[in-house]
Structure formats: C-alpha cells, structure tokens
Amino acid sequence: MTIHHTSHAGAPLDLAPAASAPAARAAKKIRRLPVHKDWPLGVTIAIQVGILVAAIALWQAAADRGWIDGFFWSRPSDVYATLIKFFSAGDAWTDIEYTFGSTILGFVIGTAAGSLFGLSFWWSRNYATIAQPYMICFHSLPKLALAPLVILIFGLGLASKVAIATALTIIVSALTTYAGVKALDADQERLFYSLGASRMQVFRKLVVPFCLPWIISVLRVNIGLALTGAIVGEFIASQHGLGRAILYAGNTYDIALVWVAALVLCTLAVVMYAAVSWIEHILRKGIKQ
Amino acid sequence: MIDTMAAATKLRLDQVSMTFNTPAGPFAALAPVTLAISPGRFISLIGPSGCGKSTIFNIVAGLLQPSGGRVFIDGVDATGTIGRVGYMLQKDLLLPWRTVLDNVILGMEIQGVPLKAARERALPLLRRYGLSGFEYLYPNALSGGMRQRAALLRTLLFDTDIMLLDEPFGALDAQTKSHMQEWLLQLWGDFEKTVVFVTHDVEEAIYLSDQMYVMATRPGRLVETIPVPIERPRQRTVTLSRDFIAIKERCMQLLTEAHKSALEEAA
How distant is the Cα of B60 from the closest Cα of chain A, in angstroms? Predict the structure, then answer.
C-alpha cells in the first residue's frame, strides 16, 4: 500500500527520470528481513526429551534384534539394572565423593593459585617478561602426558588426582588474569598515583577489582578441565573414583557398568557446571559488570 | 627549603623543562618554563597539541620527573612528589564497580580517611552540586556531563588547594559544556581553590580565567601571559563584549602565529 502511494505522489512532479528508474529497479529482488520465531519452551523441551527417548529405544531395539552386538554395546535395560545395583550394592557414593572431591580441590587450588600468579605480574614488568616463556611453554605442553610422573611423585591417593587437576587449571587462570592486568588503563593508574596512592593501594583498590571479570570468566572452563584431570589421574592408578570404575568395568567387559559410570560422571559434570555458572552469575552481579 | 617569596604564591614553576630521549635523539617537549600562580586564582593554559600542557601537569602532579627545574607548592619544593594536587583528566576514569559516592571519596580513602567519615563528608556535596539522586548509582547509569561532575567532585574532595583540570569538558557537547562551566565557577567560588585549566577552546579559557598562558610547540613553551580583567561574576553575554573580543583576537593571533611557525619549521 505504502509503495503504491509514494509512486503515485512522485509521478506528476518528475516524469522523465521516474520512467527509467523503475525499469532498472524491477530487476532487483525484493527481500524481507528474515523473521526468526522462537518455539514455546514446552515444545522445545518435548522435542529434546523425545530425541533422548527415541535414541534409547533404538539402542534397545538394535541390541535385542541383533543389529549391533549386545555384548560390546550393552543395552539400556542392562544399564538400568546395573545402575540400580551400582547405587544399592556398589561403591557408587564412595566413587562419586572421591571424584567430586579431587575435582573441586584441584579447581579451587588451580584457579586461586593461577589468579594470584597472574595478578603478581602487575608488580614487576621485568618479572613478567622473564616468566612469560615458561608460562607459554607450560601452557602448550600436553600436561596429561606427565600424569604417570605425577602419580609416581604424589602417590596413588587423592593428592595425585588433585595435582593433575591443578596443573590443568592453574595455567589457564594465570594467563587469563595476566590478560586482565595487561588491559589495565595506564591513565587509571596515573589517577591513583596522582591521589598519592601506594603500590599496595593501587593493587588492592584498582588491579584486583579490575581483573575480577577475567578471573571469573575462566571458572566454567576450569571446572571442566579439573574434572578431566581427576578422571585421567584415576585412569592411571587409583583405588576409587568414577574414572577407576570405568576403567575397571572396561577391563572386565562389564560394558553396562561403563555406561553407568559414564552416566553418573556426566550428571556430576552438569551439576558442577551449573553450580559454577551460578557462582559466576552472583559474582558478576556483585561487581556490577 | 622555604622560599621567602612564597606568601603570595601558591604554585611556582622555576625553569621547569622536559627532554625525552627518543631513538631520533633528544626531543625537547618543554623548554624551561617559569611561572607563579597566586592562591585562589583561575589560570588557563592554552595552545596547540604538543605544546607541553599535559607535560606541565604531569610534572606538577609528580607523575613525571622534570629534566630540569623545580616545582614549588606553598614555597616548598614539591618536585617529583605525588598526592599534592588534585588532577583531573579528560576521561572521567570513574571505577565501574563503585557507586558514584564511593568513586567520589576515592582520594580521601587513599589518604586514609575512614570510609564512614568520607561518605558523610561527600554526601551533602553530591546533593548540593547536582548529583542528588545519583549517589548510589553506578557510573554506567550516568550521562557524560554527570560523569564529569562526579570526576570533578572527586578531585575537589581530595582536599588539596590546587586543582589541575586537563580539558575536563573537551568531550562534552556545547550545551552541556556551558552548563559545566557555570557549575565549575560556582564550585571554584565556594571552595576558593587554585585552578589550573587546560583547554583548546579559546572562548572557554577567557570566560573562566583570571589569567591565561598561551603556549606554542617545538619546543613546548610559554609565549605570552594574557590577563583577563573582566569583572566577576560574568554573564554569558560577556562573550559578546568588546573587551572579551579584544582578548580573543589577541589570543587567536598568537595561536595562529605559533601554528604558522610550527608549519614553517616542519617544512
């Protein structure tokens, strides 16, 4: 309607150019802004659950009818039975507690030490320059390759798992926090010094709060890395833990138990990820980002 | 070392100069500058970019050690010491994680005033000087003009007799700028501070100041001192008066000359 109206109004005023212009324009494709419509939450969830149910049903059917080898693939009904047994008779809670404990310890130690390490670079540029190549070297090193060594040094217990989880998380925190330190506005520092601030005051009142968003941004990455570290530690040598349960079940061809342990591990990971996301949300609100 | 001439002088620069060593050889950012400013006066430094205005400020604030000369505050040698003057930059540099109130008390906090006492002192000032209702907001909720007000109050509450203002209104639109000028004059009248003001805007410099120092580049130096003998309080319309225009003409002439000679030297 609007287009019609405009051409009508313009035509009597300026005939000559108007006559040629529409012809040239006709070749141009008329497009509309793509409209993206979100489905209701209920529909999305229903589809998500549907996919899961369908996948499990397909798995069960395939194993029952011999499309896949039920011995190696196991089947949902067996997995469910093993799950019940794992929680009622097995060491489910000991294993969960063990893996959870080493992950959280590694996460906290690695994140805290890494952040402090990164912040410490603010104090001296010379020190930062000297440390830089070592940091990059340690960062690019596949730390899991050193896991057997860590087990030898820290023993078969919890300490070695915590050490591997810490090694994976510490460097990410340190590098990210250091990126924050480098992003600090020199004028902001000058303002503090013009007010007569000491180095310690600048550090506490400017550098630390300024770098907090960087420190927080690695929390979610680190929780995943810490879990990986703990599991790998358990793979190599351990008496407990979900990683050990998976390895043990695999070695004894108890495939259903592999699935059960993996399932529990997955749940644990999701719970920890959600908890860290929540902490991140609270912290971000606290610093008004 | 106490200067006997000090009684009438708040801030004195004695042959202050600055030379930077660059790969291309020494670069004279500031030729020896000598000037004396009486207490409670409003002084402007005006000149093209690179004339050493900011260098002077950094030296006075103690953020830069001059290559030569001394800075005296109240007759005491203050060269290279920080925390003696309030210094405000064009950027407001408010901390986004602090409320306006807590930003404004930063100077006092650093000087060791207890938080509660500092807040009690700052609150009435925030309310009297146009930040009422913004005290507990975070800076990102404020307009450019309001942010500059907060930054200026932070400088003021730092409680030094001298305030160095480095193009504080440079980034504001014309209307806000003129409001801020009135507001600054009100503050200056109420608190009897000695203000040194840097600007590119000739009209702003004349309107606000008791005296202006015109500067030139290569090397950065003072070329002339122009007094502004216009009575206070000044009306906005004073910018149309004959005296005002005469000063403005003189000023523009000096700046054009400086600009020309800089171009010739470059050619």
Answer: 10
Classify residue A43 by burial, with Cβ atoms within 10 Å: 0-12, 13-18, 19+. exposed
What sign does the dihedral A214-A216-A221-A225 (CA atoms) show? positive
pLDDT over 50 (residue A3): no
Residues above pLDDT 70, as percent of chain B: 96
| Interface subset of B 88-147, CB within 8 angstroms of A | 89, 91, 93, 95-97, 106-107, 109-111, 138, 140
Residue B42 to residue B199: CA distance in whole angstroms = 13
What is the number of H-type helices and E-type strands within chain B? 8, 10
Q: Is B240 exposed, middle or buried (0-12, 13-18, 19+ CB in 10 A)?
A: exposed
Number of Cα atoms under 13 Å in the Cβ half of residue A209: 14
Omega into B168 within 30° of 0, i.e. cis? no
| pLDDT for position A10 | 44
Q: Enumerate the β-bridge partners of residue B76.
A: B2, B73
Query: Using alpha carbons only, how large is chain B's radius of gyration in Å?
Result: 19
| B162-166 β-sheet, strand order | B86-88, B162-166, B194-199, B42-46, B211-216, B221-227
Whether B198 shows a pLDDT value over 70: the answer reads yes
**pLDDT at position A99 over 50:** yes
Between B172 and A56, the more confident residue is A56
Structure tokens at A223: 């929780």
Identify the contact set of chain A against chain B, taking CB-CB distances under 8 A: 185, 187-188, 190-197, 201, 205-206, 209, 212, 287-289
Task: Give the residue-averaged pLDDT of A175-204.
Answer: 93
Q: What is the pLDDT of residue B7?
A: 54
Encoded amino acid at B110, one letter: I
Cα–Cα distance measured from residue B203 to residue B205, given in angstroms and rounded to the nearest whole number: 5
Percentage of chain A exceeding pLDDT 90: 62
Q: pLDDT-derived band of residue B129, with 50, 70 and 90 as boundaries? A: confident
Phi and psi angles of residue B195, each rounded to the nearest 5 degrees, phi first: -115, 130
For residue A1, pLDDT beyond 60: no
DSSP for B3-72, please give it: -GGGGG-SEEEEEEEEEEEETTEEEEEEEEEEEEE-TT-EEEEE--TTSSHHHHHHHHTTSS--SEEEEE
Q: Do A196 and B84 touch (CB under 8 A)?
A: yes
Q: Quick one: DSSP state of residue B129?
A: T
CA-based nearest distance A207→chain B, Å = 11
Higher pLDDT, A283 or A214: A214
Facing B158 at nearest CB: one of A188, A193, A195: A195
Measured between CB atoms, does B175 come within 8 Å of chain A?
no
B140 contact residues in A (CB cutoff 8 A): 288
* Averaged pLDDT score across all residues of chain A: 87
Give the residue on B whose Cα is nearest the Cα of A286.
B97
- Distance (Å, whole) CA A240 – CA A91: 9
